Amino acid sequence: MGLLDGKNALVFGVANKRSIAWGITEAFLREGATVGLSYVGEALEKRVFPLAEENGIDFVEKCDVTSDAEIEALFGKVGDRFGKLDILIHAIAFAPGDELGGRFRDISRDGFRLALDISAYSLIPLAKHAAELMTEGGSIMALTYYASEKVMPRYNVMAIAKSALENIVRYLAADLGPQGVRVNSLSPGPIRTLAAAGVPGFRVMLHYAEKVSPTRGLATQEDVGNVAVFLASDWGRQVTGETIYIDGGYHVLGLTVTEEELSEG
Ligand code: NAD
Fold first, then answer.
1. Domains of the chain, CATH where assigned
2. What gap in Å lies between CA 14 and CA 183, rounded to an integer?
3. CA distance 259 to 51
4. Does 155 qualify as catalytic in the annotation?
5. What is the pLDDT of residue 197?
């Protein structure tokens, strides 16, 4: 018996098998859920379709979340295919390349608009449409990062997007709670993925996360998937509006230096 037997999940954000969304999908399948995937564009088809096929997923539909028409069309298909929905995963982020890594003060109006639209605003219409299908309650999760709270070098516009996303999660939790829909943020430490490759200095972030976090371990896609299972299951039924860290405890530290650096002092 799986923890998610009989539940239907819609997952946004699988680009390839390294995607956090794919780690979550594998955990959901393992626990007995039926999973549908949504991907952004033709360029991803050659990676997403084979993954789906190998894992018995027969609902794979394109949706660019900057388009209200595409969102509406997608949820029409989700309704036809699944009827009831129980779980929604938002694992989507985008910022123009030149907005990451430069000086914070140089963030452009267009870069800000696009990054916030795709990485934060999109959760609102996705949650609205999903909630209409969550007739027996549900669990919505969005992927965020600690740069929402503390300054992380070079994260720039994406940090602002993540702050907005976490606040949207809290407001959605209050808005949708009365109909039995819970909304939470999952906040993993750094994980090597396609999106992470766009963050300058990412390797250094990985190094520090592993050397200084209390568990001395890096979060994996599987670790995120397992926490998502808990929140999607009835075990998490009084947890909503939260940011859940999957970062080996990194976020509790005040001084993030390695043992070697400390002993040099
Ligand atoms: P990823 O590149 O595999 O996933 C990002 C996804 O966003 C891709 O599938 C991409 O197609 C999708 N996307 C971009 N623009 C879109 C649009 N207009 N419409 C629909 N989808 C769109 O990388 P990932 O690291 O798995 O990222 C997933 C989430 O996890 C993101 O929100 C990211 O910020 C977050 N996160 C990542 C890390 C990390 O270290 N990798 C850490 C914390 C949080």
1. 8-264 (3.40.50.720)
2. 20
3. 41
4. yes
5. 86
**Ligand 1 atom nearest residue 188's Cα:** 43
Joined together, the tokens standing for residue 173 give 């939790």
Is 146 noted as a catalytic residue in this protein? no
Query: What's the pTM value of the predicted model, to 2 decimals?
Result: 0.98
For residue 15, give the ligand 1 atom closest to its CA: 9
Residue 205 token pair: 């972030």
- 169 touches 243 (CB < 8 A): yes
Closest CA to 64 of 114, 7, 20: 114
| Spacing, Cα 259 to ligand 1 middle (Å) | 32
Report in angstroms the alpha-carbon separations of 80 from 25, 84, 125: 21, 9, 19
Could you give the percent of the chain with pLDDT greater than 70?
Answer: 100
Please calculate the CA angle 125-65-38 and round it to the nearest 5 degrees: 100
Q: How far is the CA of 19 from the centre of ligand 1 (A)?
A: 7
- What atom in ligand 1 is closest to the CA of residue 146? 43
Mutate to test the pocket of ligand 1, among 88, 94, 208, 247 (most ligand atoms within 8 A of CB): 94
Measured between alpha carbons, how far is 188 from 144 in angstroms, rounded to an integer? 7
Calculate mean pLDDT across residues 84-106: 95
Residue 199 — very low, low, confident or very high, per pLDDT cuts 50/70/90? confident
To test the ligand 1 pocket, which listed residue (11, 18, 19) has its Cβ within 8 A of the most ligand atoms? Answer: 19
Question: Of 39, 146, 155, 250, which is the active-site residue?
Answer: 155
pLDDT at residue 115, as a whole number = 98
Pair of tokens at residue 70: 């595409």
Q: For residues 89 and 13, is the Cβ–Cβ distance under 8 A?
A: yes
The fraction of the chain above a pLDDT of 90, given in percent, is 88
Instruction: Judge if the beta carbon of residue 20 lies within 6 A of ligand 1.
Output: yes
